[in-house]
Fold:
Amino acid sequence: VDPDLTSRLKRFALEELGFDLVGVTSGAPPASAGRLRTWIAAGCHGEMTYMADSAETRADPGRFLAGCRSIVCVALSYHGAPEPAESDPAGDRVLVARYARHKDYHKVIKGRLVRLGRLLAEASPGARWRVATDAEPVLERELAQRAGLGWIGKNTCLINRRLGSELLLGELLTDVELGADEPERDHCGTCSACLAACPTKAIVAPRRLDARRCIAYTTIERRSALPVDVGRSVGAHLFGCDLCQAVCPWNRRAAPGTGAPLPPRSRLDGLRLGDLSGLDEAGWHELAAGTPLRRLSFARFRRNLDAVTSNLRNAEQQGAA
Ligand code: B12
Ligand code: SF4
Ligand code: SF4
Structure:
């Protein structure tokens, strides 16, 4: 283990690359690989077939990078002031998850991690390394927990005591041995606010989420049409859902990040039905460009918007009655 190299990499990640958190863990298989298998066997991944196809790689970082000895885990905060629509989704306001109202994090985090990898390779010639964020088959939240970045809350999100859970994660995996940090322990205590707040009861038990019920899954990942009851379940959410994080006491007291933040895309703040209903395919692509929303084809955007429109109209009629 080279303690100098470990601290150089950490300093570079925070001071030069602008990540908000950094920590190191070993390349050992995650302890909850069994939980992942059970989750898939129960069908909780729904139509996310890539989760089932890559389960064994997720269960062992050594399959993603042969000889993986260390994993540098990073996090970038997108915490900011809530907008009125989140506490009062009334009228014709349409909800878009907060992380998605920013420049797409995938490219930003990967670009920064590649620079970290190059620094490692310079300092340790011959080092093998690979970067990951979101789409790669890595069990990111547990690795981050092991690297001391936070704990896995009952809503299944990684929470940091100082910064809360509005964090996006990434990793640099390498065959170089670095000094590992202490894992973080649970700080949820007796709280269960997220379980109570989830409108679709997708958090079936603490730290167990049935993705098929989750609004984030329905609006972002689900490919097939929305049966009436599923369409109703999304409420005013066009893309993603923040409710189980919005109620978390750790987010109410969270400090803003101190790194180089993701550039916001304020055109996506405070959207109303009228801003969206007239959009044609080109208009949708223009609005979604450069943000996570671009993952939504025009057909799925229309599918989600139809559900939201009918939900908002029903709410209005009930309000008037
Ligand atoms: C599939 C996926 C989804 C699915 C399923 C979510 C889920 N909870 O599984 C859906 C589409 C629903 C989803 C939604 C969201 N997602 Co998502 N998603 C992923 C993805 C690609 C894989 C997650 C996964 O492996 N799920 C399988 C389940 C079984 O794993 P898990 O939830 O991580 O659970 C493990 C632990 O909880 C552990 N465990 C359970 N109990 C215990 C106890 C202890 C002590 C320990 C140590 C472990 C442990 O066991 C499980 C299996 O290992 C990751 C990226 C990645 N590569 O990891 C992003 C990721 C988890 N998503 C992310 C985000 C931002 C979101 C949303 C907030 C987006 C939004 N606003 O709409 C929501 C949050 C919903 C929620 N409450 O989780 C971030 C989370 C950052 C954070 N702070 O945690 C990630 C890490 C992407 C990233 N690179 O930043 N997501
Ligand atoms: S993201 Fe929304 S629907 Fe999904 S578990 Fe959290 S509160 Fe429930
Ligand atoms: S709302 Fe409460 S139980 Fe849920 S993640 Fe936050 S602290 Fe944990």
